[in-house]
Structure formats: C-alpha cells, structure tokens
C-alpha cells in the first residue's frame, strides 16, 4: 500500500474546514433550539366572538382578545380554521389549542382545560306565533342545535323529548326557524342578538322570541393538548387580568352591538341579560317557572 503524504499546510486547511463546519452546525442547532414555538390556535365562526373574514383569516372579539393576551405573554400563535369544530381539529392533530370552548365533561377528560373565563346563557329561540315558550313545549317538535362532537351533552338534559336537528353553524339555527325547518333552536344569547342585528334576509318580517333556559348556562375555557397545557393556562391567566383591568371591555366595544353594555368575564362577574331588539321584536323571558335572569 502506498502512503500519501499530506503537507502541513493542507492539514491545517482540512482541520480549519472541519472546525468551521462544526461551528456552523452548532450555531444552527443553537439557533433552532431558541426559536419560539408556534402554537396552532383553532377558530370557527361564532359571531361576535369568532368569525372568518371574507378574504379568509380570523377576526372577532375573542380573536383580538387572545392575540393581545398572547403578545403580552410572548406566545406565538398561528390561527387555523377548524372546519368541523374544535374536537375534530384536535383529533386530526390540526390544532394545539382552542381559545373559547364549552368546558364539557368529555373535554375535561381528553384535553387540558383552563379555568373558565366566559359564561353564556342558553336560550330557546322560536317564532312568536309558534306557541313555543318552554322546554316542555318542544316535546315532539324539531329543535335545531349545534352538532359538534359533544353537542348533545348540552341539548339532551333539557330537550330529551324533542326531535333533534343537527346543524354546524349558529346562523343556520336562526334561519331554520324563520324558514320553518324547525320549531325552535338552542343558542347562546349573545350570538342570537348579534344575528338579529345583522338582519338575516330569511328572517325579515318574522317576529322572534328567546326564552332563558334555567340551569343551562355554559362556561367557556381555553382548551388544548396536554403538551400545550402551560400555554393554555398562561392565556387564560392573562385574559382574566384583562377582564379585571378593563382591557377586555375596550376590545369588546369594537364589536357592537354589545347587548349587556359589557362582556361577561367570569373573573369579574357572572351571568348576563339583554332586553328587546329594536329591529325584530325580541322577547326575553324565562323558559320555565318565574325565575329571573341572573346578573
């Protein structure tokens, strides 16, 4: 075997190249390890909380609220449209967290669920001329409800004898009443009020009413994967601070009409109520007994 002699100058060139390569590799590894994690946050149209811009992308009260909370905590988010709702998005590993989801028992078992930061009253919406006023009035009648994975957890305790009609979008619940597809729909108060103010074409000239369903309040939390637990809690913590400091109210004011004059952060107070819509004659009353709305 013939040995090849390498000159001293070439040895230094080789060693220098190896050292430079190792330095660059180390720098790239160090840089990558210090790059902030981008967390995928899901959203789905739920006016005025979350909505999709005509050209794509998220907007709404909750979107702006969470973005400010994330900036304050130096959390980096990427918004992802959860086409079939949050639960399917989690199952398909499309998102890491969802900023405003009802904290139902099945979700508490599957996800990391923060402390609640918002509460909504649930109402039964119907035509004024329908004779539907109470949960008992819906026995055997068609009831529209949001058919996300755990939608029946919300509906069945109050409407076990109704004929359930699943829907995906909140505005479809109102349209279905106006065009006669259903006799009633279960919907949160504020989204219902928001839809009335938007003057849905199907509902022009159709007097509607909404009746409070006692013991059917929903609380909402930030939910996420176990890996995102720390971020989920940080976002909720900052949102609660914003509620108490007044920053939440300032963001809410950008999204009229606000039926209560103020949003309803759990950290500040619970409950909420609105009175009559000047455009579509809305009646607001308890659906059972004589219980008054909570403030």
Description:
The chain is an alpha/beta fold. It folds into two domains: 38-119 and 218-252, Periplasmic binding protein-like II (D-Maltodextrin-Binding Protein, domain 2), CATH 3.40.190.10; 121-217 and 272-286, Periplasmic binding protein-like II (D-Maltodextrin-Binding Protein, domain 2). Helices cover 34% and strands 21% of the residues. The chain is built from nine helices and 14 strands. The chain has helices spanning 8-33, 61-72, 86-91, 105-110, 151-159, 170-178, 189-197, 229-245, 247-252, and strands spanning 38-43, 51-52, 58-59, 76-81, 97-102, 112-113, 118-120, 122-127, 142-146, 163-167, 184-188, 208-212, 218-224, 284-286. The strands form four sheets. The chain has a six-stranded mixed β-sheet, sandwiched between helices. Strands 5, 6, 7 and 13 form a four-stranded antiparallel β-sheet that branches. A two-stranded parallel sheet has the order 1-4. Strand 2 and strand 3 (58-59) form a beta hairpin. Helix 2 packs across helix 8. The radius of gyration is 26 Å and the shape is elongated.
